[in-house]
Amino acid sequence: SATVPLKSIDSYFEGNYLVELYNILDANESNAIFAMLVALLSEYRMSQGLQSHLKHLTVLEEAHRIIPSRQAGPGEDRVSSPAYEASTLLAQMLAEIRAYGEGIIIVDQSPSKIIADVLINSSTKLILRTVHGADKECLGAALSLSPQEQDYLSYLNTGEAIASVSGIYQPVHIRIPK
After folding, report:
1. What is the CB-side half-sphere exposure of residue 107 using CA atoms within 13 A?
2. CA distance 54 to 72
3. CA pseudo-torsion sign 106, 102, 160, 118
4. Residue 96: what are its φ and ψ, rounded to 5°?
5. Model pTM greater than 0.90?
6. 178 residues of the chain, pLDDT tens digit each
């Protein structure tokens, strides 16, 4: 029988790959594996040295499953929780990894369920219509929005967003072309 040659873990950080964890593992196993992948990716990027441009992009969907704001479940020790470990690693990685050419897109419909450090340390935020009070407050804190500006998030139409980009003093209202 033919054997498939094993790839170096480094090769996965250069190409396009989809890692789907929630269909095959429980939440704790997924969080532990994600924490390991984040650590490996961070080490790999740093070993490549500082970069002046984007080399690789990681997209994290349903982020609250991996980097939850409430890091430990009932009866769990917060420090040993896999979700806490993953949240801490990703928050630290976001603060450091951009300089090494790694971009991270965090996607979630409930930003209040994501660890606050991740929202605060992201340099670009794109906010679509948000109606839930806790989500508006969370985004308001991350973007320094007034209560009136937070309320406005409920009135965004399809194709409209609030964008916050480092280097621009205030968030701006944008239209997204079809």
Report:
1. 6
2. 34
3. positive
4. -115, -30
5. no
6. 566 666 787 888 888 888 887 776 777 777 778 778 888 888 999 999 999 999 888 888 888 877 888 654 555 555 556 666 667 777 777 778 889 999 889 999 999 998 888 888 888 999 999 999 999 999 999 888 999 999 999 999 999 999 999 888 899 999 999 8
Cα(2)–Cα(134) distance, rounded to whole angstroms?
55
Structure tokens at 57: 């992009």
Which two tokens mark 147? 């209560």
Going by C-alpha positions, the residue among 68, 66, 10 that lies closest to residue 40 is 10
HEC per residue, 1-56: CCCCCCCCHHHHCCCCCCCCCCCCCCHHHHHHHHHHHHHHHHHHHHHCCCCCCCCE
